[in-house]
Specification:
- By secondary structure, the chain is mainly alpha-helical.
- Among the domains are: 32 residues, no CATH class; 38 residues, no CATH class.
- GO terms for molecular function: fatty acid synthase activity.
Length: 107
Amino acid sequence: GAGAATDGIAIVGLAGRFPGADTADQFWENLQCAAVSATFLSKDLLRSKGVPEATVNHKDFVPCAYKINDPDKFDHTFFGIGRHEASIMDPQHRVFIETTWAALENA
């Protein structure tokens, strides 16, 4: 439109953490080789975690989980966050911060 800047730049980076892949490149490799990134869970484990018996034995129940590696390995000092604050922070927030940093490094 009128008055739009023509001298702007874009900084583009890509990062992600996925089940079975710590980086976008590893994720792409997994897609190419049709890797299965699910962790299959035993009935004993499900029961020990309080999953109801009716669920464990239901014909449509798929006993698997999709987990990312090391969600608890957050370097709070690197990001200038106190130990206590990091310990009570939502794990998804910590992963978001790490992944955002990785995307900036990738740019």
